[in-house]
Amino acid sequence: MNVCVVGIGLIGGSMALDLKKRGFAKKIIGVDINPQHANIAKLSKLVDETLPLEEAVKQTDMVIVATPIDVTKKLLPEILTLCQGTDKVMTDVGSTKAGILQKVSGHPNRKQFVASHPMAGTEFSGPLAAISRLFDYKTAIICEQEKSAPQALERVKKMYETLHMKVIYMQPHQHDVSAAYVSHISHISAFALSLAVLEKEKNEKRILDLASGGFASTVRLAKSSAEMWVPVFDQNSDYVLEVLDTYIEKLGQFRRAIQDKDHEKLTELIHESNKIQKIL
Predict the structure, then answer these.
(1) pTM (two decimals)
(2) Do 193 and 155 belong to one domain?
(3) N or C: which end of the chain has fewer CB within 10 A?
């Protein structure tokens, strides 16, 4: 089939790459308001051509919206209207779901939309960040599957299977609280640690000279794009604040134990945290 990818960055570009390579898509048409991104996507063969949104939707059987969350919320009703009266299927890849689904809940073409979130990514952005096999053996989440037409659901499921992803089903609020704990807080932690080190580095010029693998892996996410993450924190603010409060509480426990030279408490906290390894 012909597939339209709206937003040709890391996620959209990586999806386009493997969906074409693995035979799911015969042709990929890209849409991006950034002309430089559109040109790079064509030159690097992430897409076969780029077109304005309305023309791209008209020429394709499936639309994947891979834009920042705030842009996705604006585009979804418009694209669903463009798809009305056809069997075109539409999906998104946003990392928050409740707000998106609320935006399209009353749309007459709601059944052709499948809300999804492939849990994959890197700290880089833009079409040059797109890579093959980004999604292999990771998890894709589909929300409110009962409100999507069976054929639309099957097509999106097939798409994620082509990307070698495991598909699971969640309700939107369940998804959003889980994403806050396993993804959103990781980025906030990296941003905050990076700011703390940069502030200290003004006086201690040797700090970053001593930075090694552990530091690099911890702050890797601090290179992530503000254009993507500010809307995520805004859209998922209730759950992000909940997890931030929990995180600050745990930091406080470590601070008190270190201040009190309470080695027993520190040992207990570290041993308790080690249990995450069994889950991972």
Answers:
(1) 0.90
(2) no
(3) C
